[in-house]
Amino acid sequence: MTDSLLNERELSFQLYELQDTEALLQRPRYAEHDRAVFDATLETARGIAAEYFAPHNQKGDANEPTFDGRTISLIPETKVAWDAFAEAGFLAAHHDAADGGLQLPEVILRASMAYFNAANIATVAYSFLTIGAANLVKSFAGEELRQRFLPPMLDGRFSGTMALTEPGQGSALGDLRTSARPAGDGSYRISGQKMFISGGDHELTENIVHMVLARLDGAPAGTRGISLFLVPKFLVNPDGSLGARNDVALAGLLHKHGYRNTTSTVLSFGEHEGAVGYLVGEAGKGLSYMFQMMNEARIGVALGASSLAYQSFIHALDYARERPQGRLPGAKDPLAPQVRIIEHADVRRMLLQQKAYAEGSLALCLYASSLFEDAHTAPEETARREAGELLDLLIPMVKSYPSKYCVIASDIGIQVLGGSGYIREYPLEQYYRDNRLNPIHEGTEGIHGLDLLGRKLQQNGGAGYRLFLQQVRGALREAARDDHCAALGYVLAGALDRLQEVTENLLGQVAADPNLGLSNATVYLDLFGRVLVGWLWLRMALVASRALAAGATGSEADFYQGKLQAARYFIDWELASVDAQARLLGAGNRTSFDMRDSWF
Amino acid sequence: MTDSLLNERELSFQLYELQDTEALLQRPRYAEHDRAVFDATLETARGIAAEYFAPHNQKGDANEPTFDGRTISLIPETKVAWDAFAEAGFLAAHHDAADGGLQLPEVILRASMAYFNAANIATVAYSFLTIGAANLVKSFAGEELRQRFLPPMLDGRFSGTMALTEPGQGSALGDLRTSARPAGDGSYRISGQKMFISGGDHELTENIVHMVLARLDGAPAGTRGISLFLVPKFLVNPDGSLGARNDVALAGLLHKHGYRNTTSTVLSFGEHEGAVGYLVGEAGKGLSYMFQMMNEARIGVALGASSLAYQSFIHALDYARERPQGRLPGAKDPLAPQVRIIEHADVRRMLLQQKAYAEGSLALCLYASSLFEDAHTAPEETARREAGELLDLLIPMVKSYPSKYCVIASDIGIQVLGGSGYIREYPLEQYYRDNRLNPIHEGTEGIHGLDLLGRKLQQNGGAGYRLFLQQVRGALREAARDDHCAALGYVLAGALDRLQEVTENLLGQVAADPNLGLSNATVYLDLFGRVLVGWLWLRMALVASRALAAGATGSEADFYQGKLQAARYFIDWELASVDAQARLLGAGNRTSFDMRDSWF
Question: In what residue span(s) does the Acyl-CoA dehydrogenase/oxidase C-terminal domain sit (chains A, B) (predicted)?
Answer without folding.
Answer: 284-450
